[in-house]
Amino acid sequence: MRKSLATILLTLLSSIVAAQNSGPQAPKLDIPKGMKQYFVGLLVKGPKYTPNMPAEEHTNLLQKHLAYIRSQAEAGKYRLAGPFLDDQRIEGLLIIATPTIEEAQHVMKGDPMVQIGRLAIELHPAMLANISCVLTEYEKGSQK
Q: Judging by beta carbons within 10 Å of its beta carbon (0-12, 13-18, 19+), is residue 105 exposed, middle or buried?
């Protein structure tokens, strides 16, 4: 009796597993090799953006901003970073390598220009070609 009950249970469980595995399969996506998830960060003109900031104040703030970008590049979080040159709403672009969008937001919010409201952030998850081999080189002894 116990053997037949065990046999019936095993047969029933096998049938359930087989039914679950025979259901419709998700379509296989043809994602190219070498793709990786990044976050694309846009630095946009913030609520406290002023186009004619005094030169000395602008230079000081820009040095802090660039030092922060460098620190994040050296930490491997900013894979690419650079300004736009057309004086429109979007001031700069960042490709960010962090495991979560929350961490990417945290990193971007550490920028001195974001902290004072001169710049604001937009953040978008993206699937891009793996750029982990791309390195930004800084001159030794240049400003940190």
A: middle
Say how far apart CA 37 and CA 35 lie, in whole Å: 7
Q: Which CATH superfamily is domain 35-129 in?
A: Dimeric alpha+beta barrel (3.30.70.1060)
pTM of this structure: 0.73
Rounded distance between C-alpha atoms, residue 68 and residue 74, angstroms: 10
Of 48, 49, 121, the residue nearest 78 (C-alpha) = 121
Name the CA radius of gyration of the chain, rounded: 25
Where along the chain do its domains lie?
Answer: 35-129
Residue 95 sits at φ, ψ, to 5 deg, of -105, 120
- 47 Rama class: left (phi>0) / alpha (psi -120 to 50) / beta: alpha
Q: How far is CA 110 from CA 101, 116, 135, in A?
A: 14, 10, 21
Confidence of residue 9 (pLDDT cuts 50, 70, 90): very low
pLDDT digits (tens, 9 = 90+) for 24-50: 565 677 777 888 999 999 999 999 999
Question: d(Cα 73, Cα 2) in Å, to the nearest integer?
Answer: 66
